[in-house]
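step=encode ok
step=design start
structure_in=
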């Protein structure tokens, strides 16, 4: 049977169960919960893993990378849109495209950068098939940001650098937020940086586990 059919482990009931878990874990933003309920996460993983797509876990997507855990996708999105939905957002680390789809369901313009070409190609196709038209893609190192399309009202990174990349700070609009995991494996903390007129305010939020933020593109 095709993974595109909403059967068994990919049914609406299975998705609703995931959303209940997210609420138990503290996700409160109803807008985020609503899109997490709608987006078909099973289309962003290999068919052999589709039955596990609504578990609250990261799953392999090939080339040593993972689709982010639903909880962390919801949490980062909630942190990004708190206080107002941005008009545009830069995402670093397209990966499977799952986080992009959640962002694009809420935010008018999404710019997504991925350093691994085959992952980018695959994500682009799935997102087009699902019907998203408001995402632009770039095969690049997100450490450079994507200056031509900025400044951004929000930036979200799905890979962890040792320090906050200067280019991302510079591409934030005044009042905008950057949500990013920072630190080495085993010691990462989720951070939110808000750019004000005169400074960058940093909030250190919770321990997280992301793949490393690597240099260059492949
Ligand atoms: N949010 C994605 C998570 C993918 S894992 C999802 O839901 O599927 C993180 C991704 O970040 C990987 O695909 C990895 O290749 C990418 N990545 C790591 N460092 C990067 C960088 N400097 N620039 C762009 N992408 C990067």
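sequence_out=
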């Amino acid at each position: 049977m095709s993974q595109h059919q909403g059967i068994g482990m990919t049914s609406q009931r299975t998705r609703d169960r995931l959303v209940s878990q997210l609420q138990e874990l503290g996700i409160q933003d109803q807008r985020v919960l609503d899109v997490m309920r709608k987006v078909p996460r099973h289309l962003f993983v290999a068919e052999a893993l589709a039955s596990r797509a609504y578990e609250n876990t990261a799953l392999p997507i090939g080339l040593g990378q993972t689709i982010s855990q639903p909880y962390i996708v919801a949490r980062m999105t909630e942190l990004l849109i708190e206080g107002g939905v941005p008009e545009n957002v830069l995402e670093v680390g397209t990966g499977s495209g799952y986080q992009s789809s959640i962002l694009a369901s809420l935010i008018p313009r999404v710019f997504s950068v991925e350093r691994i070409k085959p992952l980018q190609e695959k994500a682009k196709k799935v997102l087009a098939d699902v019907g998203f038209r408001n995402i632009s893609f770039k095969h690049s190192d997100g450490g450079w940001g994507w200056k031509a399309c900025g400044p951004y009202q929000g930036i979200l990174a799905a890979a962890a650098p040792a320090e906050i990349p200067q280019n991302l700070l510079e591409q934030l609009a005044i009042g905008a937020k950057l949500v990013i995991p920072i630190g080495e494996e085993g010691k990462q903390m989720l951070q939110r940086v808000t750019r004000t007129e005169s400074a960058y305010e940093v909030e250190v939020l919770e321990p997280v586990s992301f793949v490393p933020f690597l240099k260059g593109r492949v």
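step=design ok
step=annotate ok -> The chain has six helices and nine strands.
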